[in-house]
Structures are given as C-alpha cells and as structure tokens.
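Thread: quick sanity check before group meeting

JM: Hey all, I'm pulling together slides for Thursday and realized we never actually wrote out the predicted structure for the chain we discussed last week. Dropping the sequence here so it's in one place. If anyone has concerns about the input, flag it before I start.
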Amino acid sequence: MVYVGKRLLALVVLLIGISILVFLMLQLIPGSPVTALLGQSATNPAAVARLNAELGLNKSLPVQFWLWLKGVLHGNLGYSYQNQQPVSALIGQNLPSTLELAGAGLLISIVGGIVLGAVAAVRRDTATDSVSMGIAMTLVALPSFWLGLILILLFAVVLPWFPVVGGTSLRGLVLPALTLGLGLLGITGRFVRSSLLEAMHSSHVVAARAKGLNSRTVFLKHIARNAVLPVITVIGLQVGALLSGTVLVEVVFSRPGIGRLLVQSILSKDYATVQATVLIIAAFYAITNLVVDLLYPLLDPRIGGT
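JM (edit): ok, ran it. Output follows.
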C-alpha cells in the first residue's frame, strides 16, 4: 500500500505540473488568440475588449490559470470558436478513433516485437539473429510519415487492397496501424532480445538447468518471467510515442482523431482545443506509466517492499 500511495501521489504532482506547463505553453506563443478569432474585426477595440472579457484574458495570469484548471476539473475544456462547439464535444468525437489506432499499433508492436526478439535471442549469433535485428534496426530508422507514404503507394495504389486515405473501417485501419506500430516493433524486439539474453545467463536459470528441468519449463518459469519487467517498461513508454505518433499518421491518412484535430487547431489558432488536446495526451501518458508501475509488484513482489 505504501508503494501504491507513493505512485498515486507522484501522479497527482505530475498532473499538476503538466497542467501548468500546458497552460503556460500557449501564453508564450506570439500574438493574441483574440486577434486570431476576430480576424478583420480585431481593429474594433470594443469587440476586442468584449472577447477578452468572455475568455477571461483581462485577468491576471494566476487567475486565468485557476479559472482554466477549475473548468478542466469540472469537465469544461473550453469552447472552440473555430468549430462552434465545446472542446469536450470535439475531443469526444475524435478520441475513440485515436484510441483505436493507438491500440492497433500497440498490438502490432507487442506481438511482432516479442516474436522478433524471442527468435533472435533463441538463435543468438546465428544468421537468424542477424536478420531479425537487421529488420528491427531498419524499422526503427524509418520515419513514420515516409513509411506511411510507401505503404499507401504499395498497398493502396499499386495493389488496391486498402483505402488510400480516410478509411474508418477495419480495412482502413490496417495501413495506419502498420505505419504506427512497425517502428515501435523494432524497439520492442531489441529490448525483448536483450532482456531474454540477460535472463538466460542469470544464476537461477543456470541452477534450474542443472537440476534437469526441461527447456520449456526453464524458459517459461525462469527466463520469460524475469525478462518481462524491462519489456513492460518499454511498452509503457511506447504509449506516449503512439499517441504523439498519431499526429503524423492521422494527417498522412486523413483519419479522424485527436492528432489530426491538434494539427488543425494549431493551424487555425484554436488555442482552447490545442490546450485540451495536449493536456489529454500528456495525462494519458502519465496514467499509463502509473499502471505500469502498479504492475511491477504483481510481477515481482520484492518491488512492493521498497
């Protein structure tokens, strides 16, 4: 319970820090959001003063932050004047598509990475190991936007198997998910290989083999169990990369989602939507890492006692 309490307290402090940074980030952007919203009407002092009052921009910075934070805690993320609807409604419309894409990309990363890393570890210092790690390094090095364009060219234009852009069906999810997951697959594969190799040479594994246990039992009960902790850490970190990676992938494939919404909001200077989107991505990343931390004592009871 002490371990859980420390992690929950750290999460609260982290979320407060994130909210401050997100709020201050947009305050540093040159120009005024009122000018961007009013356009040609920004030359009217009365209109500028009225909108400043509506947005609370005529108050001091600490008061603005408190009002914004209080609204966030009550589920009020602001109002999008560009889209003429509450920001929470915009997020609710786009978040499911992003979670679907991120979940599919994470599944590809985990399953493919575990298979690639396990094969490389079992076949260490062989041609299979070299080829597997060569594939992993290639996938890590490829920029996601370039990989997405290549996949579109090959499997949507040359071979018209999948929709080119904008597909929201299961077939339309395949290419974006591959674009998002393949790069992280390479990272997962490398960590799985190194974790398995380290576990294979640990003293308790050597002792288990000396007792005459069969290879399958040794691998499942002694090697895989001890190798899983570093891999879970990497997977937790990848969630943040997946959510941030959806920004490029959703734009390339013209998919709905908060990544594409973020880009559109930045271009249209819809500051309330930008704030809310960045806050949600950062908070989701922090909560995911809390879940990973809470899994540690379940997998290794010694951690909970520290």
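AS: nice. The chain is about 80% helix and 0% strand. The longest helix spans residues 215-252.
JM: adding both to the slides.
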